[in-house]
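Sequence design from tokenized structure. All designs in this work follow the same two-part layout: the structure record, then the generated sequence. An example of the structure record is given first.
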């Protein structure tokens, strides 16, 4: 996984956790929450049979169900209780998210992450999607009319549409299809300009700089202990030298490191300030587009406050990067993609209660 701003993913999870504290009393809203989330997904289970790796009912088992698969000699069942969100970091530095004319100005989704909430084992898993992943992208003209579907970098999909909900829905479809029509229950698209704001709202983040980034910020010398604030945080999680082949890899390691430090800072903030949720949400409200509503957050609240997450829950997809003219193309390894889907979204039959 080599996309910009992994921070956006964790930030959104933390935001929902913080905000939920004010919503826990609204039990009636929770009843609608799950139903609303389910209705937003175009599918009910991945269509794994599309993959050459798919193994179905090879033994003639009369109890076999449609959403079961066979993998590495074991039978797996799709976990229908998992709730999945697509978190997008949009390559726009605008202070306010605004609607644009139909065309290709919606902004590229340079950060793409699937956040999966599993109530069975109370964990949060993250799957990072390389922004250069070559996949089916729907092409629209300046009037919003569908023209064709082409193989292109997945980040380009958000550029079509109006830069708001329309662009997000296009991107959700592209990601769902890449993951064999995986159900996606909600999305949040956040402008890059939100990084310094979110970072400073939690009082900054401490890191040991993993690589020399003095080209972007003089404070970011390799090995230096730095308290990230403002634009320095922005450069640490976003910047890279595009002239270095596959520079996304080293940036990913910075982002993984930053995530852990950010969560610790956010927890400290919550203990010290009861209004932290409202303040944080308000601070970036005009920098994001989301279809996650208050009743859905209310439904998720009891889970989010107790779910486990650490760096081992961040899943990456292997593949190879090739240069095609000026631009890089990432070709995901089907075995790695298939395995990620199974490990995150499926359960062994024998492991089920």
């Amino acid at each position: 996984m080599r996309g910009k701003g992994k921070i956006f993913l964790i930030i959104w999870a933390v935001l929902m956790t913080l905000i939920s504290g004010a919503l826990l009393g609204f039990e009636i809203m929770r009843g609608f929450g799950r139903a609303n989330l389910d209705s937003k997904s175009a599918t009910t289970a991945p269509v794994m049979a599309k993959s050459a790796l798919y193994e179905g009912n090879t033994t003639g088992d009369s109890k076999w169900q449609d959403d079961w698969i066979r993998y590495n000699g074991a039978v797996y069942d799709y976990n229908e209780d998992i709730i999945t969100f697509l978190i997008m970091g949009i390559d726009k530095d605008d202070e306010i998210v605004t609607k644009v004319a139909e065309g290709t100005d919606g902004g590229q989704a340079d950060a793409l992450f699937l956040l999966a909430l599993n109530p069975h084992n109370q964990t949060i898993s993250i799957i990072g999607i390389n922004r250069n992943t070559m996949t089916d992208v729907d092409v629209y003209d300046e009037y919003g009319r569908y023209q064709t579907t082409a193989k292109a970098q997945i980040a380009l999909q958000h550029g079509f549409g109006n830069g708001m909900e329309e662009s997000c829905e296009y991107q959700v479809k592209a990601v769902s299809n890449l993951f064999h029509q995986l159900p996606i229950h909600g999305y949040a698209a956040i402008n890059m300009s939100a990084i310094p704001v979110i970072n400073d709202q939690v009082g900054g983040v401490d890191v040991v700089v993993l690589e020399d980034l003095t080209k972007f910020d003089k404070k970011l010398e390799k090995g230096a202990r730095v308290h990230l604030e403002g634009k320095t945080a922005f450069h640490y999680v976003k910047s890279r030298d595009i002239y270095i082949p596959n520079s996304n890899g080293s940036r990913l390691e910075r982002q993984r490191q930053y995530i852990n430090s950010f969560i610790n800072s956010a927890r400290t903030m919550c203990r010290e300030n009861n209004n932290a949720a409202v303040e944080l949400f308000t601070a970036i409200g005009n920098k994001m587009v989301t279809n996650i509503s208050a009743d859905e957050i209310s439904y998720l609240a009891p889970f989010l406050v107790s779910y486990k997450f650490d760096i081992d829950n961040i899943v990456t997809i292997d593949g190879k990067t090739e240069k095609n003219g000026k631009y890089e193309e990432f070709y995901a390894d089907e075995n790695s993609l298939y395995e990620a889907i199974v490990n995150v979204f499926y359960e062994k039959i024998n492991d089920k209660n």
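The domain at 7-192+291-351 is CATH 3.30.420.590 (Nucleotidyltransferase; domain 5). We note this feature because it recurs in several other targets discussed in the main text.
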